[in-house]
Predict the 3D structure of the following.
Amino acid sequence: MALARSPQLLILTARFLLVPRRDLAVSGPSEPLPVVRIPRALQRRQEQRQNGRRSAPRPAIVRPGRLLISARRPELNQPARLTLARWENAPLASRGWKNRRSRWDHFSIERAQHEAPALRNLSSKSSFADLGLEPRVLRVLQEIAPEVVRPTTVQSSTIPPLLRGRHILCAAETGSGKTLSYLLPLLQRLLGRPSLYSGSIPAPRGLVLVPSRELAEQVRAVAQPLGSSLGIQVRQLWGGRGMSRIRLQLSKQPPADILVATPGALWKSLKRQLISLNQLSFLVLDEADTLLDESFLEFVDYILGKSHIAEGPDELKDPFNPKAQLALVGATFPEGVGQLLSKVATSDSLTTITSSKLHCIMPHVKQTFMRLKGAEKVAELVQILKQHDRAHRTGPSGTVLVFCNSSSTVNWLGYILDDHKIQHLRLQGQMPASMRAGIFQSFQKGSEDILLCTDIASRGLDSTHVELVVNYDFPLTLQDYIHRAGRVGRVGSEVPGTVISFVTHPWDVSLVQKIELAARRKRSLPGLGTSVKETLPQLA
Ligand SMILES: Nc1ncnc2c1ncn2[C@@H]1O[C@H](COP(=O)(O)OP(=O)(O)OP(=O)(O)O)[C@@H](O)[C@H]1O
């Protein structure tokens, strides 16, 4: 065997072995040996095998100290103090996960800090009063939301320019307090200008557009108590139950000063002239990237066309000719949003604000990735939920969100959980509107511990007691991953958050590898660029 170490010797060995015995016996020394050609690929494989044998097995690197990545194979761990440079090729824990043999492999991105990055500002000296809010708005905020004492980073950066009448594009991580950052300036703006309107159809002065009914309900629930203490009426408008329901919502008295609406319902109302946007002085697009994507773009385009957007802060001053100030907020923004915006606002009237943690892996949430076969997911989920249930019985614990990619999976999985006597709620887009109404609110109030849902629950919905997000189906895009994971670890969260993702398909693996690489490099996720001009103060 020692003879076969190099390709030349290999050829000789092969020549010797492949020559028939009979020929060897009769052939004299003058006769040439028969030539056996060994394919180059076989030679190369042999070389590789020998090189592999020669190199010593890699020692397991078990370094002391906190870890950023902890993998099943400890040699792939990455200590928290180490950051991979942009050009460095990382030994990924998810490498080879497209191969079926990698099943049951797993790794975690560990929690690097306990508090949400947006909370760091809370320890600073700045207060809501410093941001330019009026004493009556501050008083109401204190009465209605006593837990909101100091502004978060995004609130500190967004409120002052909004109060100065600038259009805003605000991109900041999930759960960082974006809702109050536009609601407080909106309330203050309406306080400063009483309605001069005397028309027959409702004409709200403030409009908040959101992509789902659940989010409309949530934003209304935050705005209404603040508004009613200031004499401002907040109403919601969403569809799904026919025109008669829309008419009923619009006919409520007194009419809305601020309307929180979904695009489809508002579009229908505008087409039928049940509502007018002539008096609009503040327009918010919450979860703006969803509102500007193809499914809503036609409605939103129409609504923007009907709203008279001001060219700049000067145009906002005339009470007899109301023009609207524009605020777009979201936790993810696609490339090209700036071009879209240029249709409605000039670039010098727009302030773009983005957080330094935008599109980054949340450093305060543990994120585990498990490579499983499709058929193994149910058993794993049931085990996780039972474990959670046991923990819940023995002590205080939070709630669980389980995300699936389709409504049918939510229903199917629901029946399986029923069989295992695991109590839960279900929320998916194909439910009749009457069934869907109120489900997320009852989950928020804690009537059930587990919510099985599709991505309709991933955008903007706030629950401070969600402790665990399970991606039963891996999300189809990195944006969806960010939004789903953003249901835990929110400002004001009562429990530390964890995300567990089941990884099954090769396309899931491609996304996981991007997430792992971004985590190891401590950089933002790739392909989610934004037209950033001004960044929030860099956090230490
Ligand atoms: N200044 C503050 N101090 C303490 N808690 C706050 C403050 N501002 C907001 N919160 C709380 O933080 C939580 C998240 O806020 P909010 O829903 O506005 O986040 P968001 O940035 O809009 O999230 P998403 O991107 O998911 O829509 C809410 O429960 C809210 O009450």
Notes: The CA atoms of residues 270 and 276 lie 7 Å apart. The chain has a mean pLDDT of 84. The first helix runs from residue 7 to 18.
